[in-house]
Give the backbone structure.
Amino acid sequence: MAEKKSIQKQESQAIEQSERIRSGKVFLPATDIIETDNEIIIRADMPGVNEKAIDITLDNKVLTIQGCVDQDTPGDYQLAYSEYETGDYLRKFTLSDAIEQEKINARYKEGVLEVTLPKAEKMKARQITVTSE
């Protein structure tokens, strides 16, 4: 029988290092990092975030991903019970010189942010030819 796994949002510890102007919880988005020969791809789950509310910055080799969730309560309803927590997202990654920083791009679709980090030419794998004497 397959084991059930409980998936919970993990609250970010990084908020202590940065000032926030919004109140509320901040979560670490669940993230996959995929490496190919030419690039590194970061996929971050950020459900409920509007693509216009995503802020990606690169400062001093630190890539910061932030997403703000609009916490909208419809009309004159009052929340009686909730099992799902909402909040903003924050994640930071330190990049090496192996990344072409000026060629980084990002796209957001159906709650998943995908940031593509192209590898620098000098860091790409290459085939070495063996010669004999």
The radius of gyration is 19 Å. Residues 24-72+84-123 form a domain with the Immunoglobulin-like fold (CATH 2.60.40.790). The chain has no helices and nine strands. The mean pLDDT is 83.
